[in-house]
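Lecture notes, continued. The same structure-token format from the folding unit now serves as the input rather than the output. Read the line below as a description of shape only.
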């Protein structure tokens, strides 16, 4: 490997060859091997059909984990500033019910004592749309437009506006709402976490094969045998059978 790396630099004479051999130490060669194995692994993860099937299977499993994570995030609830027409006033606490059928909105009277009054109950089945970011009318009240989101109830009959403390919290809440109402929209955080979980599961599965070359294509399947059962010998005729029996008795 060392000689191959030296020849890649095309030394012009023997002295240059010797100098290059001195510069390329064992550590350099080991690092090159590690880099090559890492590149091969990346290509394998992207192109090998068996690993693609594995990713699909793990993707379905991890989507269930992320679903539970998002729903539990709503069940724990969170504090949000109450959004009026063009300003915020006071705070509210929003929480998903344990049966996942209603959204409970509380008015916080005192932050210190955590005294709250139930303002409203919204049925999840009545939520028709989830609006995110700059599409929200109150996005100008946030430091970042990605912190703003709204839920539309019964096609604009009612609307609840939210300002999350950060983009991640907003994405978790909007993911949960979209999952509950059956929408296919997902945030970047959702896809990023799903990819990370799938990659982690795949790497654990092929951990023992990292130093083994895996063929890109499965070996060819051998052809089926021409006869699945051994041939049955023909039955002897009556005279031959009698003759063979007499020989056995004579012996």
């Amino acid at each position: 490997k060392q000689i191959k790396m030296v020849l890649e630099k095309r030394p012009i004479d023997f002295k240059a060859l010797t100098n290059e051999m001195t510069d390329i130490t064992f550590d350099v060669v080991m690092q090159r091997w590690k880099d090559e194995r890492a590149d091969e692994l990346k290509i394998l993860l992207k192109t090998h059909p068996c690993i693609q099937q594995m990713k699909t299977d793990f993707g379905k499993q991890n989507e269930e984990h992320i679903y539970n994570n998002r729903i539990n995030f709503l069940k724990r609830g969170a504090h949000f500033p109450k959004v009026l027409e063009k300003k915020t006033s006071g705070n509210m606490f929003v929480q998903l019910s344990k049966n996942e059928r209603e959204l409970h909105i509380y008015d916080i009277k005192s932050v210190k004592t955590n005294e709250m009054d139930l303002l409203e109950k919204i049925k999840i089945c009545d939520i028709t749309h989830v609006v995110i970011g700059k599409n929200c009318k109150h996005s100008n009240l946030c430091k970042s437009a990605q912190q703003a989101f709204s839920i539309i109830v019964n096609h604009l009959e009612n609307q609840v506006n939210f300002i999350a403390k950060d983009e991640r919290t907003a994405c978790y809440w909007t993911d949960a709402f979209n999952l509950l109402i059956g929408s296919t929209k997902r945030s970047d955080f959702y896809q990023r976490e799903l990819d990370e979980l799938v990659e982690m599961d795949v790497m654990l599965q092929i951990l023992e094969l990292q130093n083994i070359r895996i063929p890109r294509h499965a070996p060819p399947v051998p052809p089926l045998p021409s006869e699945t059962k051994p041939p049955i010998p023909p039955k002897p005729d009556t005279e031959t059978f009698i003759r063979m029996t007499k020989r056995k008795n004579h012996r």
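Point for the exam: The chain has a mean pLDDT of 81.
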